[in-house]
Amino acid sequence: MRLEGGKDCPVRDATVDLISEYAASLACQDVGPGAVHAVKRSLIDSIGCALAAYAAEPVKIARRMAARVRSDAPASLIGSFIKTSPEMAAFVNGAMVRYLDFSDDYLNNDGPHPSDNIAAVMAACEAVNANGKALVCGIALAYEIVGQLVDNAEFKFRGWDYVTETSIGSALGSGNVLGLSKERMAHALTLAIAPNIALYQTRAGELSMWKGCAGPNAARNGLFAALLASEGMTGPNLIIEGARGLWNQVTGRFELGPFGGNGRPFKVERTFFKPRPIMYTAILPVETAFELRREVNIDAIDSIHIFLDRFSVISSSGQEKYDPHTRETADHSIPYLVVAALVDGEISERSFTPERYRDAQVLALLKRVSMTEDNRYSKEWPDPMSCRIEITDRSGRTFSRHLINPKGHPSNPMSDAEIEEKFLYLTREVLTTGQAAEALQLLWHVEEVDDMAKIFEAVRI
Length: 461
Fold this sequence. Notes:
This protein is an alpha+beta fold and 461 residues long. The protein contains 20 helices and six strands.
């Protein structure tokens, strides 16, 4: 191959060639009506999540840093008048989307939040004055690449964090917006992979603020990779299939499936949406606990046994999940969330205050909780997803419930009306009723937007 303006340079293997050709050639007209509508749902959901997290401490930290950065191609921070570099905008806006753990998901071999890519694609669009159609195409592409990796590659069970997939998705989605050729798209892909292999330790042990910032940081790095490639930067060769490449060092060999387009659905059409601000694998256990709460006497509980698939058990493993000391650990602890659902009958922002997750009654019940993998559930997962909880009281009576597919699962989806209700709920404290209604109208017609500034103006606090 020949890089534009450069020498012959074998930077690609077959997998890189396949991905870069698809990413460079995908056009707005290739994204069918179903995928366009799905993108709008995720965009509305993500901006709602972002506005609700405007005052969160990690967001304020990131926003202070971004406010000190200037750029000749500026990008906006959601909710404010601040403009910064595209990379910093991707990080700050992404942290806003992600922080409350209310943003969308995509589950199979792994569970990244594909909405982490949205802020990077938005920043790329704003930097080059791209329109709403380009935004929709870039988001659909980023979701497609992340979904393909989730379905066919293995990161989590080998000790690597899923945000590596986000770097790749953001590089390609942003690269499409930037108009990268197939050659430069290949370099964007290699530059997204080589420096951005992330450790799963981010999601192990007592969780920190970085839990909600790792994905946005990966998206920032993916956008940076696309910007580098757009200027002619070359990346390492054989990055996936080489002796020291992704296959041999990280994931093992994988083969991607057919990409969306040409009559095939896009991965964005199978997005998982959250009705509660907790990790997705905890939603079904919480719903199951709500069902049992009607029957059990909380003060008489002797034991609580939670039966789940392997993925969900691993996602909430570790002794700290039975003794949470941070908000981030609490919203990723199935044992804690089940106990909170039983005690309070709700999961809300109050559930993630120290007063609640360090409450004596809650901590005492957590000592009576166990989680076990049910092999049948593991074989079926993620469709259907199953949870069974068995509670035994001190008299020896056992109460049991088995539920499948929580609300927001592709087989039990949230309706458009429910997506709107969630947006209105999330923005109720930062937007007026009129602002929120106008923002929804704009976002449902985002492909008609000719200037990205209109989106940021519509949701300015």
